[in-house]
Design a protein that fits this description.
Elements (H helix, E strand, L loop, with lengths): L5 E4 L1 H5 L9 H12 L5 E2 L2 E2 L12 H7 L10 E2 L3 H9 L4 E7 L2 H8 L3 H18 L2 E7 L12 H14 L3 E6 L6 H12 L7 E5 L6 H10 L4 E4 L19 H10 L8 H15 L6 H12 L2
Parallel strand pairs: 1-2, 1-9, 3-4, 4-5, 5-6, 6-7, 7-8, 8-9
């Protein structure tokens, strides 16, 4: 397997969407511009969703049209339906993401639709994306547990991920939305999905609620996974999953990967500075242990 791991940075979308206090559009743009200079290859910029349901993303068009795009960096955006897709394309999106869940209860809570209905909604998006030469990424939530129904059958994760792959998603991100997964369950889930979808088409999206994210990532790396979603300063959560903390912190993931001899192309010091800047804007300490330690070490010696 390759020793290169591709990071997909989530802080500007998944990291900010659950913040209750409004965040200035200028700060969102500044965050993405700063992240673009760290070597991250993909930065999810925003979500073209209903402001009624996710008020923090109401300025999606302003954010996407206002950022400074760096050559070689992808800026995907979340689009739950064809209307959102069309808005995103008008704003200049060249990659979009669609999402569903592996549990019916969470799908109904999150999208007000069954899994089957969400997959039906994707069909016109996929058709339009093929015509527009736009890449589509897929998210499957609750792959290791659901806040509504509890355990989620691995067979359901396989079924939904396979359906999204067959629809044409170039990559499927497998999300432990509430962070309850443990290494044995994470490994078994990935192995099962990889029997139907090539492992190089799969990504890991692990929240760190129970402190298991890095351990889960390690066993999935051993199974061949090489794409990881993460969020600077550990920001994030889920508005439909009470108690879920943010994604695993990008700084922690990169420190871990570099320690394993794997390459990311990301400047960890630069990213640590961005995480510190973001945490200051949010008025709280960074949730990244590596980020806090490295920032203090570097700046206390100056």
């Amino acid at each position: 397997m390759s020793d290169y791991v591709r990071l997909v940075e989530m802080s500007a979308r998944d990291g900010l969407q659950n913040e209750s206090a409004p965040i200035n559009t200028a700060d969102k743009i500044e965050l993405i511009n700063r992240l673009s200079e760290t070597g991250l290859p993909s930065i999810e910029a925003t979500a073209f969703v209903s402001p009624k349901w996710v008020p923090q993303m109401a300025d999606a068009t302003e954010v996407l049209t206002g950022i400074r795009r760096k050559p070689g960096v992808d800026y995907p955006v979340l689009t739950p339906n064809l209307q959102g897709y069309q808005r995103a394309i008008e704003a200049g999106a060249r990659e979009v993401a669609v999402f569903t869940a592996a549990s019916e209860g969470f799908s109904l809570k999150n999208t007000n639709a069954s899994i089957a209905q969400t997959l039906e909604r994707f069909a016109p998006i996929m058709e339009a994306a093929r015509a527009d030469n736009v890449k589509v990424r897929g998210y499957v939530s609750t792959v290791l547990g659901c806040p509504i129904q509890g355990e989620v059958a691995v067979s359901e994760v396989v079924r939904v991920a396979t359906a999204m792959h067959e629809l044409g998603c170039y990559e499927i991100s497998l999300g432990d939305t509430i962070g309850v997964g443990t290494p044995a369950k994470a490994r078994a889930m990935l192995r099962a999905v990889a029997q139907q979808v090539p492992v190089e088409r799969l990504a890991l999206h692990f929240h760190d609620t129970y402190g298991q994210a890095l351990a889960n990532i390690l066993v999935c790396l051993e199974e061949g996974a090489r794409v990881i979603d993460a969020s600077a300063a550990g920001t994030g959560g889920c508005p439909y999953a009470k108690g879920a903390t943010g994604n695993v912190a990008t700084e922690d993931v990169i420190y871990f990967l570099h320690g394993q001899g794997l390459r990311t192309g990301v400047d960890l010091d630069a990213l640590t500075d961005v995480g510190h800047w973001l945490s200051e804007r949010l008025g709280r300490a960074s949730q990244s242990r590596a980020g806090r330690a490295l920032y203090v070490k570097r700046h206390s010696s100056n």
